[in-house]
Amino acid sequence: MLLPLSVSAIVALALLSDMLAPRVVAGWERYRTHRMPVAAPFPDPGRERRAEQTARELLRSCVGEEEWGMYRDLGFIRVWGSQSAARSGGAEYAYLIYPHRPIISYEPQTGRLLGEHCVEFPDDTRPYGSSRLPDSDDVLAKWMALTGDEQRLLASANLHMPGRQVDADQVARDLWRLSRWEQARMRALASELATGPREQADERGGRRG
Asked: What residues in the chain have per-residue pLDDT under 70?
């Protein structure tokens, strides 16, 4: 009596296992898929370089020759403040724009730092990865905001004391580098202006001869 019952039980268990096994496997796979993190797309090592190169070309096409030369040679751009000093006839203050760092305001006459203006321009167009703009795009966004609507940018920025995020000594060195760069540029322009009339005179003399 026990033997037929045992055989029947084994047959029933086998049938149940055949029916339940696919469901158990499918459920386990769904569980694993839900638990496993989604793999990020494989990064393209050249993507950031290509994006920065495109950003540099755009920046060069938008800013003036002097601003582009500053960024190319020094790594930052100086923007004059919109308010002028009545006594000196020049700007009361100016800004230094660095990529992905606060905008630094300072007094051009004395070099005294006034503050750090923290603003961010995230890239919301990327389907994945970091929302950080290429360096040159970040500089261009700040330049456009300052030159387009300075007061609006200042109102939306977080103002901090000098030296909080950008080392004050480094800014002082950058201002010194900027003054040397401007002196060299002025000498080059003066040399070009002096060479031009001489070349024209030589050409006229050659035609008369």
From this structure: 1-45, 84-90, 124-130, 196-209
Q: What is the pLDDT of residues 18-36, one digit of tens each?
A: 554 555 445 545 545 555 5
* pLDDT digits 0-9 by tens, 95-123: 999 999 999 999 999 999 999 999 998 87
Cα angle at 130 between 155 and 135, to 5 degrees? 60
Contact 104, 26 (CB under 8 A): no
In the chain, the DSSP E strands lie at 77-80, 94-97, 103-106, 113-118, 158-160
Q: Are 108 and 93 in contact (CB under 8 A)?
A: yes
Say which residues have a Cβ less than 8 Å from residue 75's Cβ, sequence separation at least 6. 98, 99
Under 8 Å between Cβ of 65 and 55: no
**Half-sphere CA count of 187, side-chain side, radius 13 A:** 6
Backbone angles phi, psi at 167, to 5 degrees: -60, 125
Instruction: Find the Cα–Cα–Cα–Cα dihedral 67, 71, 76, 78, rounded to 10°.
Output: -10
Decide: 101 and 117 in contact? Cβ < 8 Å: no
Helices 65-74 and 135-148, axial angle in degrees (round to 10): 140
For residue 206, count CB atoms less than 10 angstroms from its CB and return exposed for 0-12, middle for 13-18, buried for 19 or more: exposed
